[in-house]
Amino acid sequence: MDSSPLSNVLESAEVQAFATGFPTALAHLSVTLGLLAAGAIIYALLTPWKEITLIRRGNAAAAVAFSGVLVGLAVPLAVSLSVSTSIKDIALWGVATVALQLMAFRLVDFVLTGLPQRIQNNEVSAAVLLVGAKLSTALILAAALTG
To answer: Distance between CA atoms of 44 and 110, rounded to whole angstroms?
Structure first.
């Protein structure tokens, strides 16, 4: 008895690989997105100015600055995700990445003194400078993860 074309497609190596790999990809993605959310929450709690409150009040500088935090955390997390082979690996390197990036963010905030007040005053130019510094550290950290 001949198999139907649909049955042949469902039994193909490609579909079987997808069926096996997709749940793993979702698990890896979930862990990484959880680390991104945790890092963003920790940053928001540690920052001397309350960016979320400022954003809700329409402060564009705070929105730009916090967007830089999100992208700055996402870049090394994405590299960590791409070089990791298991959920444990992703979690270990992801936590290390978030911790290092949060330390780098605090250092940038410390070195670029006066920027928090300028961001509170809705000076977008200050936020753009802060984003540039944070993305620079994110790219360097991401490169360090690849060896």
So the answer is: 16
Q: What average pLDDT values come out for the chain (147 residues) when binned by 10 residues?
A: 69 86 93 96 86 94 94 94 90 90 82 84 91 91 86
- In this prediction, residue 49 carries a pLDDT of 78
What's the confidence (pLDDT) of residue 3? 66
SS3 48: coil
Amino acid code (one letter) for 15 = V
Which residue type does 104 have? A
Size of the chain, expressed as the number of residues it contains: 147
Read off the DSSP letter of residue 86. S
Q: Is 47 helix (H, G, I), strand (E, B) or coil?
A: coil
95 within 8 A of 42, measured Cβ to Cβ: no
Query: Residue 85's pLDDT is what?
Result: 87
Select from 80, 104, 99 the least CA-distant residue to 31: 80
How far, in Å, are 6, 23, 102, 111 from residue 106 at the CA level? 56, 36, 6, 9
| pLDDT of 2 | 56
Q: How far is CA 58 from CA 69, 92, 96, 123, in A?
A: 18, 37, 33, 12
